[in-house]
Backbone:
């Protein structure tokens, strides 16, 4: 028997692997999901650098440093949520719960074992917002035999599955992942390669942090990939991309500096073009390898969906068999989908409903998240 909830208002809060900001969205969740409002708070440069250093160096810091980052991400999350609520006609007491993903510091697989670490103290969030907070979604998935990622396929299936057309939902965040949603049959998802992580790191490094990402793919669009086809092909045929499902990645899997050495004295534009091509081709090859049908409608979300040059390359690679359609027609803007996912997962945890991700992460059907009651 499902538990009765005080309202259908839920907040999802998270920061992606690019560690740019904390994003929070308010949603009304019934049989459908409705976006109500959104707020975002950028990390300061020092905190962002600390997070990315841990992620890229694959080494945990001292307990004191870890606790400090945990508190800071929790404080920014609470601040963002309170800012969000002020933009709405609702009081905090009317919000049923917060689904807090936190900030991933590390996610790595060793054989069948997965280690995943998120920060953003949920007790602090609950205390500063006075709202029940559900957290540790990835840990719950891992404890039930899964890889902890990707979690979004369950949300995609709930709200984006169609009886009219076969669909692929492709989320291009720091990492690219996709969900196959057939008209009939089982849905499943997987991480397929680097999304924006190598492109963003290159742009930040190349501009001495003046720019955080390649806006619209403007730099990459000026570059050439033809002289570097051999290196791109070798990289995409490396062991890193030889996987079976389920599969999960993290940004530490993709070493920008190591790939840059292979490009020699390539211009900045050529390097950006090559990195963008790797993202596009890894998505294309993943569809080729794991999508069980030869035609489906494609919907893009995540920050990469805003990269016009990347999208243009995907359109060419995918062709007419996998046309890219406007995801806004599915009811949510792409930038709100991840926040909506964790808002929805919070609701599912409160009503005691197990999440099925066996085909996406390898986990048994299980309750995801820990409840920190107000």
Residues:
């Amino acid at each position: 028997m499902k538990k009765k909830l005080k309202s259908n208002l839920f907040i999802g809060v998270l920061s992606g692997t690019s560690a740019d900001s904390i994003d929070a969205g308010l949603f009304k969740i019934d049989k459908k999901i409705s976006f109500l409002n959104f707020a975002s708070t950028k990390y300061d440069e020092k905190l962002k650098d600390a997070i990315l250093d841990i992620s890229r160096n694959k080494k945990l810091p001292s307990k004191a440093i870890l606790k400090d980052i945990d508190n800071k991400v929790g404080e920014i999350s609470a601040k963002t949520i309170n800012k969000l609520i002020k933009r709405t006609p609702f009081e905090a007491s009317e919000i049923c719960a917060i689904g807090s993903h936190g900030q991933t510091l590390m996610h790595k697989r060793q054989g069948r074992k997965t280690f995943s670490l998120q920060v953003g103290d949920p007790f602090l969030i609950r205390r500063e917002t006075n709202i029940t907070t559900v957290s540790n979604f990835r840990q719950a998935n891992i404890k039930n035999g899964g890889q902890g990622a990707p979690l979004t396929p369950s949300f995609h299936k709930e709200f984006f599955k169609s009886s009219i057309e076969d669909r692929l939902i492709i989320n291009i965040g720091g990492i690219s992942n996709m969900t196959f949603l057939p008209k009939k049959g089982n849905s499943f998802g997987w991480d397929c390669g680097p999304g924006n992580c190598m492109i963003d790191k290159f742009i930040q490094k190349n501009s001495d942090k003046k720019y955080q990402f390649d806006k619209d793919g403007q730099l990459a669009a000026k570059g050439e990939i033809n002289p570097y086809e051999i290196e791109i092909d070798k990289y995409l045929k490396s062991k890193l991309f030889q996987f079976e499902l389920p599969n999960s990645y993290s940004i530490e899997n993709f070493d920008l500096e190591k790939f840059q050495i292979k490009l020699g004295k390539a211009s900045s534009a050529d390097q950006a073009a090559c990195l963008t091509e790797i993202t596009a081709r890894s998505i294309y090859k993943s569809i080729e390898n794991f999508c069980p049908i030869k035609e489906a409608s494609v919907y893009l979300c995540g920050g990469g969906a805003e990269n016009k040059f990347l999208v243009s390359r995907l359109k060419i690679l995918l062709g007419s068999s996998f046309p890219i359609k406007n995801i806004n027609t599915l009811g949510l803007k792409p930038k709100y989908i991840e926040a909506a996912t964790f808002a929805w997962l919070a609701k599912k945890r409160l009503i005691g409903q197990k999440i099925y991700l066996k085909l996406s992460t390898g986990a048994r059907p299980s309750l995801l998240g820990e409840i920190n009651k107000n």
In short: The first strand starts at residue 9 and ends at 15. The mean pLDDT is 95. Residues 63-86 form the longest helix (24 residues). The chain is about 40% helix and 20% strand.
